[in-house]
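Meet today's protein:

…
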Amino acid sequence: MTVQLEKHKMFIIFRTLLILIHLLYSLRLIIYNSCLIVHRKCIGYWYKKNPKIEIEMLVHSMNKLRKLPEHVVILGEKKDCIKDSIQIISWCITLGIPFISFYGRKDFLSQHENALKQEFAVRRPELMEYINWSQLHIPRKENGITGSNTVIRILLPCKNSGKGGVVLLTQHLAEAVTTKNLKIEEINENFICEKMTLKGIPDPDLALIHGHICSTYGFLPWHIRTTGFVTLPECHNVSVKDFIWILKKYSKREQRYGE
């Protein structure tokens, strides 16, 4: 009986400690996000969302970066993410980042592609000529919008977009093995990865996650083997300083498989 009472007391103590730690962590997040909101409002008031100032900041920072990503993917979209998406697209155009993807479980942006295009045309009409919404193979350009005819490829994959490719590849492999055009021993990890790679589109170098939960949101694992993950602030209205900070963090990181 005494042993059971001791176990019960220990259970209550550990449970209380766990609740206390959870409350302290939640309080920390609330304070952090509140300070971040105030900071962003001050930055927004100071710069007044001036595209020219943002371009100057981005170009100035780009000269100090060791490398830039070729493919950026945004994970964890929400219904009010169109404004942030437009901002990130315009910054990627400025820096000459040729590919950007938006992906989430609810497929909000892929289902509202026309709304995104229309809103972008209203907010940043001068950048519409630099965007390609449909072409698969895109020649590589240099120096962002400081060069000529720069094109950025906007990808809006849905959660089912990769399933058809997996099924089709499985059918082709089974047929090739059955007809003895392919040996089972030849089917390995490198072989599968090569077949599943999107032609003309590099794997994402950098993934930006909305919110404090680090999740791939179902993004296909063979496309993110060397992807660096960075968590964006949970609140919206991502500032150009946030984006520059992320790029600096990416520039210092050595990419390896599984990181």
User: Anything to note?
Assistant: Confidence is low (pLDDT under 50) at residues 135-148. The chain has two domains: 1-47, 49-137+149-250. Residues 226 and 257 are 5 Å apart (CA to CA).
